[in-house]
Design a protein that fits this description.
The complex is a heterodimer of chains A (about 100) and B (about 150). Chain A is an alpha+beta fold and about 100 residues long. Chain A contains 2 helices and 5 strands, in the order E-E-H-E-H-E-E. Chain A has a 4-stranded mixed sheet with strand order 1-4-5-2. In chain A, a hairpin with a 4-residue loop joins strand 4 and strand 5. Chain B is an alpha+beta fold and about 150 residues long. Chain B has a single domain, classed as Hypothetical protein apc22750. Chain B (Translation Initiation Factor IF3, 2-Layer Sandwich). Chain B is built from 3 helices and 4 strands. Chain B is elongated, with a radius of gyration of 19 Å. The chains are: A alpha+beta (about 100), B alpha+beta (about 150). Chains A and B meet through strand 1, helix 1, strand 3, helix 2 and strand 4 of A and helix 1, strand 2, helix 2, strand 3 and strand 4 of B.
């Protein structure tokens, strides 16, 4: 499965357009990480735990999107976009969407 | 009274460690930007027409970064008077540059020479009770173009 955020790919022709596919996940962090982040809020700097958490969640969202694309018989997802929104305090929704296509 | 002492301690800790962390971070950002300068990252939507066969792959880079206690206090003061909040400007600047660097590093690992259709996304993840910024997440993503050997 080819995943890209461009509308066209060099040297490839789109033979069929299969519509929008999407994947999303809502994640929250456990208390230990929250405590560490609270400390970091005093000292400043990167919150590595949160970076990892969001990366994992984003991968999960992409995997779900890819699974949906496979289900409709696509071999590539183009024009992928990401979006993040905080649903409640301490939980974030990660959303990935794109266009499922069949490339020649 | 204890509150005041704790406040002063947090302020000093934030000032000292925050300044150190920021200086160190900016130094490492400048070094890595020099190393990765060869990889072009642009937000053009269409691939180049230079006759080279390339394969496209999605690359991402993200970072969550937090502002320190001292700077948050400064920003609070600033919002009374209005004007530029420099302490948050550097926070966002660091986060964006770091995210782009991580994306470029991933592109280099794949053997790409350029990243097209680069997009940046910023979101504040920890909504404090007081509704202040606190920490931000920046995500940079784009399509890495890897030259294909014929």
């Amino acid at each position: 499965m080819l995943v890209s955020n461009m509308e066209i790919l060099p040297g490839k022709r789109i033979s069929e357009h299969l519509g929008l596919v999407q994947g999303s996940t809502v994640r929250t962090k456990h208390l230990g990480r929250d405590l560490m982040a609270g400390l970091k809020n005093i000292f400043g700097g990167e919150l590595k735990g949160y970076t990892e958490l969001l990366q994992e969640a984003r991968e999960e969202a992409v995997n779900r999107m890819v699974a949906q694309a496979e289900a409709v018989g696509a071999n590539a997802v183009l024009n992928v976009r990401f979006s993040t929104s905080s649903v409640t305090a301490g939980a974030a929704e990660l959303f990935a969407y794109g266009t499922a296509v069949i490339l020649e | 009274m204890y509150d005041l002492i704790a406040f002063v301690i947090f302020l000093t800790l934030g000032y000292v460690f925050g300044q150190l962390a920021e200086k160190k971070h900016y130094k490492s950002i400048r070094e890595r930007e020099g190393e990765l300068r060869k990889i072009i990252a642009v937000n053009s939507r269409f691939p180049p027409h230079d006759g080279v066969q390339r394969a496209g792959l999605l690359v991402t880079g993200s970072v969550v970064i937090s502002v320190d206690y001292f700077k948050r206090f400064l920003a609070g003061l600033r919002s009374l008077l209005g004007g530029r909040i420099t302490s948050y400007e550097t926070l966002l600047d660091r986060a964006r540059r770091e995210a782009i660097l991580r994306m470029k590093a991933e592109a280099r690992q794949l053997g790409a020479d350029m990243v097209f259709n680069m997009k940046l996304e910023t979101s504040s993840i920890s909504k404090n009770a007081r509704g202040k910024i606190g920490s931000v997440e920046v995500l940079a993503y784009g399509t890495a173009l890897v030259p294909v050997k014929p």
